Amino acid sequence: MKIKENLFNQRxxxxxxxxxxxxxxxIFVNELxxxxxxxxxxxxxxxxxDAMTFVDVVFPAFLFIVGMSIPFAFNARLxxxxxxxxxxxxxxxxxxxxxxxxxxxxxxxxxxxxxxxxITPVLWALLAYAMxxxxxxxxxxxxxxxxxxxxxxxxxxxxITLYFLYVRDTGxxxxxPKWWGILGLIGWAYLFTVIYYWLVSGNLWAMIAF
Length: 210
Hints:
The chain is built from eight helices and no strands.
């Protein structure tokens, strides 16, 4: 992959603004989901309806932002002097993080048998949502290495434990991907898009065809 001289090397305000608006709308519509008698245009349309609302556009907007950000992110890393191994390590870590968090989120919502679980589903979900913070947090350079290792590997150990504490409504132990969840799907889309972008060296027409 070569440096693209025609790409900006600083943050793109329009992409950041769209990202911020999308996150705001996501939080807003998630809050509305628990409220009764909300107008249909403020909810997801039923799966069999031949229609869309602005709520249905939130997830596609996330995917659009992911795709738009990749060329600029790659270019910035190449200009900084990162080698392909560094870029791919970062890419895989980010994709795996999104996929794992997505699977835990989906399983925390439904599909469990609370009566057979050692801890309550609420506590299970709280730990599942909290552990990605110490695992994938970006620690400062002067942060103690031993403490960083304790937090990261401790978080991984807790997630592994949560996997085995989970009891499905079928009586089986352990989680299933189900539909991967929103974050999981974003993770897969991000991974496949990066692989394709790298293979075609960022060729515009090849990306449009894809």
